[in-house]
Design a protein that fits this description.
about 525 residues, Rossmann fold, four-stranded parallel beta sheet, alpha/beta, GMP Synthetase, Chain A, domain 3, nine-stranded mixed beta sheet, about 30% helix
């Protein structure tokens, strides 16, 4: 055996990638339940077999290593299969938010140069509109979920899984791109964060350690799998550990609560808005929730009064706050159960494979207690932004990844996030870039000036609102503005309220003062 062959043999034996996870879990416990999705139950052996079939099907349908496969679907077992099958085939997965408009989807398909597109059957109409607006996609299939019908002229993904072809034997390099996750950031167009296999694997280890996760967990996944928090912090870590995963289509409170009781679920993740909805459900006091012992939240701090209510009504529940962002794959820091009460609102401490500092505007670390930009160094980090060298260079300036969040370390060594550096709004667990909404509003012929910002809300934590200056002589109404937004934006990005002003507050240099808008409209918004 020559040295090149030997190197290849050793590389295969040492492989430790996203593609290897289902096979290794299946060999350890083939008959244990891996996935529950409605009436369907898959063992780890069955799940790994489906990953093989899906990887072979991707190759059969023209996808080659390095190609991008876009996936537009609500939560389902097929989503879990494709998360691994794409890696096994060397194909790059591009999850798409199913709440986006055709125009927004078209941008992602074009920007990512998607060679394939798999779409939930009920979402085919918006996907077809997106393809007409954007680029052609060579290979398509429909995921037909219960109660749905396969659209005419769309191949059924279920037929793909009947292939008799051998599964591909694609060895992933540590820094080969396996995922492109689109994040709104603070720009008018989303950025594609490129993740390699090594970065994801280190992130899984950090998550497992920080969250005290184990193979004995029974985990409910109800938040969207297109988001890296549910996909990479919880679903893939559960399969990695050999835990049982219950996939739900949505975080509907009654469904979640009854699922906890039925399956004796032990672990659940949701943003504070969803935890609040569970507490307010009339089902809460009707079901046995005693199995639930691990609770995770993120996207925004848990309101202190809700934290106390969870303690009182779920005394066995231990809580973790996970903080991060898409570019970190996504976990950066965690606040564990022992510090929830004493340090409510904190983002905790950097997780095991992350180094976090606070920088001033010269990229110099600042002293504890001083607010600056939160910056990270970690193997979790993305490889860069797809097709955007300038934004990548800006994000990694000085050898640190710049999060765009402002924060500080306190005297206990705990991280606190105090603001978004570039006006990101976090509403109901989703990120909304104010500038993206503003640019859509500026397309309205009756708007002279606009400012979009977030206001505190008891359910959404933050609600998107807009302050609008109409053009002279234009009789503009709130309904006019909201109808315009709905034509161009996903529902969660559409403002909940529109306030009309004669002018927007600015400083002497002309910079918009959103802080004053928040101060002015917070009382009025709270009363409605």
């Amino acid at each position: 055996m020559d040295s090149d062959d030997l190197d290849a043999v050793i590389a295969r034996a040492r492989s430790h990638s996203l593609a290897d996870i289902p096979r290794r879990s299946a060999r350890k416990q083939p008959h244990k339940t891996a996935i529950i999705d409605g009436p369907l139950t898959l063992s780890f052996a069955e799940f790994d077999h489906l990953v093989d079939r899906a990887a072979a099907a991707l190759c059969d349908n023209g996808l080659r290593p390095g190609d991008r496969l876009a996936l537009l679907s609500r939560n389902c077992w097929q989503y879990a299969v494709l998360a691994f099958a794409t890696a096994r085939a060397g194909v790059v997965l591009v999850p798409i938010n199913f709440m986006l408009t055709a125009e927004e989807i078209a941008y992602i398909l074009t920007h990512s140069n998607a060679a394939g597109l798999i779409v939930e059957a009920d979402l085919v109409p918006v996907a077809a509109d997106a393809m007409r607006l954007g680029t052609a996609v060579n290979s398509t299939a429909a995921l037909v979920l219960p109660g749905q019908t396969c659209p005419a002229d769309w191949p059924d993904f279920a037929d793909w899984l009947t292939t008799g072809s051998a599964a591909p034997d694609c060895l992933l390099g540590d820094d080969e791109i396996v995922r492109v996750m689109y994040t709104s950031g603070t720009e008018s167009r989303p950025k594609g964060a490129m993740h390699g296999s090594r970065g994801l694997m280190w992130q899984y280890i950090s998550t497992i350690v920080a969250g005290s996760m184990s193979g004995d967990d029974v985990v409910i996944h109800s938040l969207p799998l297109y988001h890296c928090a549910q996909l990479d912090n919880f679903l893939i870590t559960a399969i990695y550990l050999g835990a049982t995963s219950i996939i739900l289509p949505r975080p509907e409170p009654d469904l979640v609560l009854r699922t906890i009781e039925r399956h004796h679920a032990t672990s659940y993740f949701a943003p504070p808005t969803v935890w609040i909805s569970l507490l307010r459900s009339i089902v809460f006091d009707e079901v046995d929730l005693s199995s639930l012992c691990k609770g995770y939240y993120g996207a925004s701090p848990m309101p202190t009064e809700i934290l106390h209510e969870l303690r009182r009504r779920l005394p066995r529940l231990r809580l973790w706050n996970f903080y991060g962002q898409t570019e970190m794959a996504p976990l950066a820091s965690a606040l564990g159960p022992e510090e929830q009460d004493r340090h409510a609102g904190s983002a905790g401490r950097p997780v095991v494979n992350v180094e976090t500092t606070i920088l001033d505007d010269t990229n110099t670390p600042v002293a504890p207690g001083t607010v600056g930009e939160i910056a990270h160094r970690s193997a979790h980090l993305m490889l860069g932004y797809l097709n955007d060298a300038d934004k990548t260079a800006e994000a990694f300036a000085g050898g640190w990844f710049h999060s765009g969040d402002l924060g500080y370390y306190d005297e206990h060594g705990l991280l606190h996030v105090v603001d978004r550096k570039k006006d990101m709004i976090k509403t109901g667990g989703e990120n909304v870039a104010s500038r993206e909404v503003e640019e859509i509003l500026y397309l309205h012929s009756g708007i002279e000036e606009v400012a979009v910002f977030g206001l505190a809300h008891p359910l959404w934590v933050e609600a998107v609102v807009a302050a609008v200056v109409p053009r002279a002589g234009v009789a503009l109404t709130e309904d006019d503005v909201l109808a315009h937004c709905r034509d161009h934006l996903a529902g969660f990005k559409t403002p909940k309220r529109v306030f009309f002003l004669d002018s927007l507050p600015k400083n002497p240099s002309g910079k918009l003062l959103k802080r004053r808008l928040r101060e002015e409209f917070s009382p009025e918004f709270a009363q409605n």
